[in-house]
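mind reviewing this fold:
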Amino acid sequence: MISPYNFVPPPETIVLPAWADHASHDIPFEDGISGHFDVEVTARTDIFVGDGDSDGFSRDPDGRYAIPGTSLRGMLRSVIEIAGFGRIAPFNNQRYGFRDLQNRREYGNHMAAIVRGEPTPLVNAGWLVRDGEQWAIEPCHFAKAEYGMLEGLARNIGVTGFRPNEKQSAVRKYEAFGDRAFQTYDCPVALTLAGGQTVGGVTRISAYGVAGRGLPQRGRLVFTGQPQDRKSGETRKKHHDFLFFGEAGEPIPVSAQQREDFEFIHRADRAQHRDTVEPNEEWGFWLKQWPRVGRVPVFFLLKPDGGLRAFGLAMMFKLAYDQTTGDAVEGAQAGLAGASRTAGVRHWPDLAEAMFGYVRGNEPADKQRGALRGRVAVGQGRVQGDVRPTSVVEAVFGAPKASFYPHYLQQGRDVDGGPARDAGRSVWSTYMDPKLKARGWKRYLVQPRANRRPLMPDTARDDHKSRFAPLPAGTRFVARVRVHNLRPMELGALIWALDFGGHAGAMHQIGRGRPLGFGAVTLRLTAEALRTVVGGETVAAAGTVEAFTGYMQAATGEKWASSRTLFELLAMVTPVEEGEARQIRYPTIQPNEFNRIKQDGAALLPWGGRAKWEAWKKERPAGARRADRAWTGDLLPQPPAPEEEVVDVTTAATPGQAAAAAPQKESPREAEAAPPWAGWVEVVFLDFNGARETRKLWAKKKEKERRVRVRAVDGRGEGELSTTRTAGIGELFGALASANAAFTFFARVDDEAIAQVALALPPEATG
């Protein structure tokens, strides 16, 4: 498949660290690390990081070339989001529109039907009006007006330059007619469909006919674009515009969401991924004319209940999809362990959010936590030495759209499948599919060198071209990274992300021109030991990376190191071979390779591929939970296997006593080297696990039945604690805490009755 990008598929388990919601700038973790370190950034291909909207390379306050710290920070965060098995976020929740004439099942059948051998529109016509912020559509009737008749009218009223058979936008036609386009004209119309008639299972409210014969009507001309040049007499190409006339019922209100969808669908291509609304040519034309002419001609579809379904500026308008990009992301993560929890956990931070911060939306559940300031700050990457830009590169950068479903949506039953087949035709999963799934995290493929002479479309206008002068490969930058109150596994995740855990040849990408191979960089920590702020102590970088990888192994049941997600990430950050690089480009419009992809059923499959992953997986070490529970003891734990032996101990048991009562798995010498009470204690409710109303269930039970079984785990083994005296969950944790020297850390997930308790070392451990 021709594409400069691909996707890292989501993991089987989303990891939501139990301590993540306690991350803070004000209250330090017992093992929190604060300090700074420097990172060297080396460009492996030509690099250009723009300075805002200008065409110049970004600079620091002293005028030296520099990479903004926000760009470096975002680059690292995206890697930790994937490698930390987080949510696919943040993303723009957008509802795209589509006009796919080749997809009759999902587009054509909504827009037209065959009546007596002739294609007949199912859409209605009307006038879009507004009263302040409120929009409505006033229905009317419409008829098609052949180009020959319109050309005759133009000659009769002295309009010059009106050539409707040439490829052009609707705006050019209106400009040719000028103000005469907004006048009314008398024209005979022969109706072929009456209002109230049911066609294709849809009851129409607009009558439809053919202008040029029949009864006289008084109406206004409505022009739509001409998609391709047409010779006189060709009937398989668009050969008519429209006359709107009469009235067809009461105004139909347009909801705020429908207005938002319409304005997004009618944005300019370059504004598809921006917050500002920049209209496309036709909608921009009508926004200027609307105050003067009072109403805008539209075509629309109704719901079975008579409400408005969708509307647009052409008879075959872009139909708003039923589902959004947010629905696709939710679908990709639905059912994954850790993703579909109740509201309290649904917004629990993942690893990247806990480290880099977040701002929640306006939903009620979001307001519970609001926002979190990040604990990782990255300064500008300042250039080292005297570097001069290379020659200017000229290119056209398109805006990739998530609406192209063969690339962006998972097809078939798994990530390695293409679309289903029905009678030899591809049946695609589109944004009409209620069970759609996004492919995962999008990343550009790393190319061995930048393409400084990309193909330039013949139709490219000068204002579509980008010109920039990149810095050459080999340019070095140095950036300072400051961390505050990071736990060792968090710091390890950050250091792992610098070079992808030491993966050979791995590169990041940053700046403009990534689809062309620009901006491939490697990152290197300039010191193996990090000096902390408090006390000037040093922290071994390798030790924190081991803490991160051990944490992820434990959180995923020893599956992280061999996961498909990690494999595809590493495959995509490894530079492609020279021969493959020739296929790293966008599909072309002339010839239309996008349509060819749909016709051939050529879905975008994961870059690494299943076969290579299966071979890679066999070479990976199985991995295990670290013996040091300080790194892994506060995970959202998995329930014990049925065959595990459970041993009763008292409620006053220390972690060491709980472990001593459990089956011994180490030799006495090993036990002597690693005291059984070392580390953290993890408590899991076995009964009621998954019950949202645990407290209510507890209160309803009879006293003799008021028992909660928990599993205490430390560095040595497992045991069971039971109680019949506690009146609630809080008291249970209080009893556990009082059995130890000090209570140091506590976190609970109420909605699923899963909790973790971290206890300090008992007195006998410290002497």
Notes: The chain has a mean pLDDT of 77. The two ends are 65 Å apart (CA to CA). The first strand starts at residue 5 and ends at 8.
